[in-house]
Predict the structure.
Amino acid sequence: MTDMAVDADCLADCVKVWKGELKYILCNLNSDNTAIVTVKTSTDANYDNFLAESASDQCLWALYHLQWKNASGVSKTRIVLYTWTPDDAKIKRKLVFSAARGSFQTKLTNSAVTHYALVATESSDLALNNVTAKL
């Protein structure tokens, strides 16, 4: 399960995030757990709306075009790949997501999508100040 396929449309959506055409995408496994697919795309720049959609009780990946100002007031931009595996998700599902994460990251890198990877297991991990502190 270490070499998970990534749907071509999903990779195209990832490139759109990298180019700034989309703010974020949410990705999940297809119904037979053989490929990573896009389940939602958005141009909404409101981070709270992103959190409301991504922090559920289901595992998922999100690629987010994050823009913020650091403590010195300097504007920063990063493409962040979130792996959301909540504590209350089923163990088997978390294992599948953990195993597939490496394939997803490799496919993004091969598609020239430079990104930072973060793993989140509880909603506080997704808080903007916690995310930006890790970047």
Remarks:
- The longest strand covers residues 60-69.
- DSSP finds four helices and six strands in the chain.
- The chain has a mean pLDDT of 91.
